[in-house]
C-alpha cells in the first residue's frame, strides 16, 4: 500500500460532497468535499510505484478543465487511468461542480 498526495490550483469551491465508485466492488472510489483555494488529492493505492502514472493522469485532467477547489480522497484498487479520470469527473459532476 502506498499513499500519494497532489495539489492543484482551483477556481471557486465545489458546491457539495460526492462519492463516485465503490471500493468494495474492486473499483476505484472517489470521495469529494468542498475546500477553499486549492484541490488537495490523497490517493491510497494497492500498487506501489505508480506515482508517475497518477501524476500524468491528474496533471492532464486539471490542465484540461478549470475545476473548483475540493478535498479528494481516492482508494484506487489498482484501477486503470481511464477509470481514474471517469470517477473523478463523476464526483465533480455529482457535487454540482462540472
Automatic annotation (TrEMBL):
Cellular location(s): Cytoplasm
Chain positions with O-(phosphoribosyl dephospho-coenzyme A)serine modification: 25
Main location: cytoplasm
Keyword Phosphoprotein among record annotations: yes
Entries under InterPro entries matching the protein: Mal_deCO2ase/Cit_lyase_ACP, Malonate_deCO2ase_dsu
One Gene Ontology term, aspect cellular component: cytoplasm
Pfam families: ACP (PF06857)
Post-translational modification: Covalently binds the prosthetic group of malonate decarboxylase.
Keywords: Cytoplasm, Phosphoprotein
Keyword Isomerase: no
NCBIfam families in the cross-refs: malonate_delta, PRK01220.1
HAMAP family tied to this protein: Malonate_deCO2ase_dsu
UniProt protein name: Malonate decarboxylase acyl carrier protein
Lineage: Bacteria, Pseudomonadati, Pseudomonadota, Betaproteobacteria, Burkholderiales
Amino acid at each position: 500500500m502506498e499513499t500519494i498526495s497532489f495539489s492543484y490550483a482551483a477556481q471557486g469551491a465545489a458546491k457539495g460532497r460526492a462519492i463516485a465508485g465503490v471500493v468494495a466492488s474492486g473499483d476505484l472510489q472517489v470521495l469529494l468535499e468542498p475546500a477553499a483555494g486549492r484541490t488537495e488529492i490523497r490517493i491510497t493505492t494497492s500498487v506501489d510505484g505508480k506515482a508517475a502514472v497518477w501524476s500524468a493522469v491528474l496533471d492532464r485532467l486539471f490542465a484540461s478543465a478549470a475545476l473548483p477547489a475540493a478535498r479528494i480522497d481516492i482508494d484506487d484498487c489498482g484501477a486503470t487511468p481511464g477509470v481514474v479520470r471517469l470517477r473523478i469527473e463523476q464526483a465533480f459532476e455529482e457535487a454540482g461542480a462540472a
